[in-house]
Design a protein that fits this description.
7 helices; 4 strands
Amino acid sequence: MLFFATVEAVPVPSLKKHHLRRQVAGEEIARWTGILNGAGLDVTEDDVVAFVMSASKKAVRTRWRIVRPFRRLERRLKMGQAWGLFSYTDNHPGRLIVEGSVDGSRWTVLYPDPQHNDPRLAATLVHRRIRGIWDDAGDRPHPGGLYRRWVDWLGRRVFAEYPELSQVRVHFEQLTVRPPGSSKRVGAPKSMHMEVRSR
């Protein structure tokens, strides 16, 4: 069973065309096109996309053929592995920012702020189950209804901890991470998925 759980966990992305419209995907496609052309292969970005889409379909199909016969037993024993482990690195991760305001004009960072972090709020936000909601949503172009419901829940929790606040603002700063020695400029963080809740 361990073998089949491992096969399920192997990061085989089930890609769709819309996944390749993300910024990190575009950068990777351009990078690999350059690498392949530098190795003497005459390929375009469209060729790379076609190959990746085809390889993804074949890999998903192969994995399904391997794990399908054991799926019923696996579910009965509750041994399934439903998510891929670290399927890709993201050069544009989102960093969660939680802010509070007394009057709606000035905002104070509540998380992450190492000097004034409320340890209870920080412990809640980094808990693996809670982080699983916001960390996944923060890197998506459209985080969806689960993210908004999570912000509702977080807003109620912050208002309970900070009775002086009238508003809570939650958003992500999209950072750009470059490897050491990279000559590409890193721009200012971009704010994404801004949600405000009022008491």
